[in-house]
């Protein structure tokens, strides 16, 4: 099971590093090397295979006990650790999405309010809708945490 966690971690770090590399290079000089397309496809395939492996091999570790049994948990298992990490993923990803959404909306609303001060109410509504994405992820994490 540990090799699946290591493989998945490697795939996630590689995808983030590739995304940052492609984001930081100027668009005018961006030339994607020929070797990177198969490498990205291979890494995505490894990521999906590791997720399926964790799902198929680690699902028994994460399942809850029957309601009638009282179990004293003294040790953290790998499955429970993965479950707790999985609970935090919706909050993290929704917060990243909200940050991506609030950036352009905030800049555009600031420009609109400077030109027309009466547009402040509408721009705050749009900013609130973008921030709601993070709240939805937090609510999902709380609901998932209650299921553990």
Q: Which features characterize this protein?
A:
4 helices; F1FO ATP Synthase; 148 residues; single chain; 2 domains; mainly alpha
Please explain how this structure is put together.
The protein is mostly helical and 148 residues long. The model has no long low-confidence stretch (mean pLDDT 78). The protein contains four helices and no strands. It starts with a helix and ends with a helix.
In the CATH hierarchy, what is the architecture of the largest domain at level 2? Up-down Bundle
User: On the 0-100 scale, what is the average pLDDT?
Assistant: 78
The total of helices stands at 4
Instruction: Report the count of strand segments.
Output: 0
Oligomer: single chain
What gyration radius follows from the Cα positions, in whole Å?
21 Å
DSSP helix fraction: over 70%
Tell me the number of structural domains.
2
Regarding CATH, which class of the largest domain? Mainly Alpha
